[in-house]
Specification:
The chain is an alpha+beta fold and about 150 residues long. It has 5 helices and 6 strands. The chain folds into 2 domains: about 55 residues, no CATH class; about 70 residues. It has a two-stranded antiparallel sheet with strand order 1-4. The radius of gyration is 28 Å and the shape is rod-shaped.
Length: about 150
Amino acid sequence: MKYTDEVRFCFGVALVNDIGTRLEPFEYTGRKVVLHSTFEKLVKEEIKRVKSLTGNCPPWVVNQRPEGAIYLDDPVDKVKGVGNKKKEQLKKVGILTVADLVRTMQPPDGFTAKSFSTLKSKLPNNIPPTAPSPIDHRKYENPYLSLYGDE
């Protein structure tokens, strides 16, 4: 900034219903004032830029899945205590998802009754079927309005 102790204000008037109205002063220190047409062009360019982003890029893609939540359609290794070794043992007998594990009543090969019971006891009651889908604000006409609202 040219003068660090400087403050900039914008003063204006408008004709509202054929009556001259004085607008509230607007302090714009450190900002750039542009024409409305320039502002709208910049908004369109920014929306285009956001929509062209790829991948899972916060804040535009919001994961609604609660931390640590388990769903029936999750892979079995989402269950606490199931690492690669147990996952492979369960895979050999056709247990691929949490739903498969819930439905299995008898311990599969490679598991004792106690170890299988311990594993199943780590499952919460009333497991929801599917995880909520993430919200991709880039798919909306205006990603900013979708994400932040009309502020």
